[in-house]
Amino acid sequence: MIVYGFAVGALQANCYLLGDSESRQAAVIDPGDDHARILREGEKRDLRVKKILLTHAHPDHMGAALELRRVTGASLGCHRDEVWVFEQVWRMSGVRDASIDRAIDETYEDGDEIEIGKLKINVIHTPGHSPGGVCYYAHPCLFTGDTLFQRSVGRTDIPGGDYAKLQASITEKLLGLDDEVVVLPGHMGKTTLGEEKRSNPFVREMLMQASS
Prior knowledge:
Layout: E1 2-8, E2 13-19, E3 25-29, H1 35-44, E4 48-53, H2 59-62, H3 65-72, E5 75-79, H4 83-92, E6 106-108, E7 113-116, E8 119-125, E9 134-138, E10 141-145, E11 148-149, E12 152-153, H5 163-174, E13 182-185, E14 191-192, H6 193-199, H7 201-211
Parallel strand pairs: 3-4, 4-5, 5-6, 10-13
Antiparallel strand pairs: 1-2, 2-3, 7-8, 8-9, 9-10, 11-12, 13-14
Helix pairs in contact: 5-7
């Protein structure tokens, strides 16, 4: 498995290349900006982009998605509850693009499995930061978008945010995975689930509330 992450755009959102080392097929997770750089990073690693996966559709995570889709022919996917977020964000950008009605090629549900070559990626629906937010799990890597960060969690004081749902997503769906799972978030550096259980004040508070 090939994993390479780098920050893009004004808000420095993390974009990830996730590739199958045998077939050289790859997914781009959260192409927030700079499609040309994303393509260059893929070419450096001899990867062919087959899928574009959004953890959620906020602008800093999907800004280059349609251009990347146009250039590569890759399918663009997100959770079904995030399609309307994608469409609203794209329309508010002021760009009128006839492809908007067909831009989302695939929609996912909790528990779906996505294949990239021989890689299997599990979809975990984690609403809270956004209604259709998901994490993508390709053992041992968990791509958490804006659900879980190093010593922090996603904001819920925005349209579509819901703290109770975020708490349930983290405590009931993510923290049951092995402590050694590597967390690759949408912003900031990587961590592990075990480290977040020990040192993330938000996670610790969530766990206490869930057990009370």
